[in-house]
Amino acid sequence: MKVLTLHGVNLNMFGKRDPKQYGTITLDQINAGLVELGRELGVEVDSFQSNFEGAMCERIHQALHEGVSAVIINAGAWTHYSYAIRDALAILSCPIIEVHMSHVHAREAFRHVSVFAEVVKGQICGFGIDSYLLGLRAAVSAVRQA
Ligand code: DQA
70 C-alpha to center of ligand 1: Å? Predict the structure, then answer.
């Protein structure tokens, strides 16, 4: 089983960016945590980050060709307005889990909306790196139950 983790705009700056919201963990550390949990669960975890919306859409298209089993996505601010990424995600038939490091519903109103909500299996937010790790567990169990 191969799970693809997608990190969107500005998430390469985790570790340097707004530590009150995101702590000091870096994206590399998050990815390493996912690979380690993946090993425990017996799944391969791949990751991709981009600050370019079109590149993110193309990586999602590629996921269809690769036949990935599940996708975990933290699209950063794109979550709140990118219909392009929403439509790309809608092409996939595998389970998609939306995650956020911060508790988006306890923040500014614009962060309360996810344009991905209709096309994802579920959302996890507010738990820092654990949002990703819980997302991986949810993805694996969704695939195993299907
Ligand atoms: C985020 C929340 C988004 O609102 C924000 O734009 C981000 C990070 C999170 O992980 O908490 O870039 O997705």
Answer: 21
Task: Check pocket membership of 72 for ligand 1, CB cut-off 6 A.
Answer: no
Question: What band does 146 get if pLDDT is binned at 50, 70 and 90?
Answer: confident
Question: By residue range, what is the domain housing residue 31?
Answer: 2-145
For residues 45 and 13, what is the distance between their CA atoms, to the nearest angstrom?
21
pLDDT digits (tens, 9 = 90+) for 108-135: 999 999 999 999 999 999 999 999 999 9
CA distances from 37 to 44, 101, 112 (A): 10, 17, 29
The CATH number for 122's domain is 3.40.50.9100
- Number of domains into which the chain is organized: 1
Of 75, 81, 38, 39, which Cα lies nearest the Cα of 60?
Answer: 75
How far apart (Å, rounded) are the C-alpha atoms in residues 106 and 13? 22
Whether 76 is in the pocket of ligand 1, judged by its Cβ within 6 Å, is yes
Is residue 104 within 6 Å of ligand 1 at its C-beta? yes
Report the predicted TM-score, pTM, of the whole model to 2 decimal places.
0.97
For the stretch 79-92, pLDDT in tens is: 999 999 999 999 99
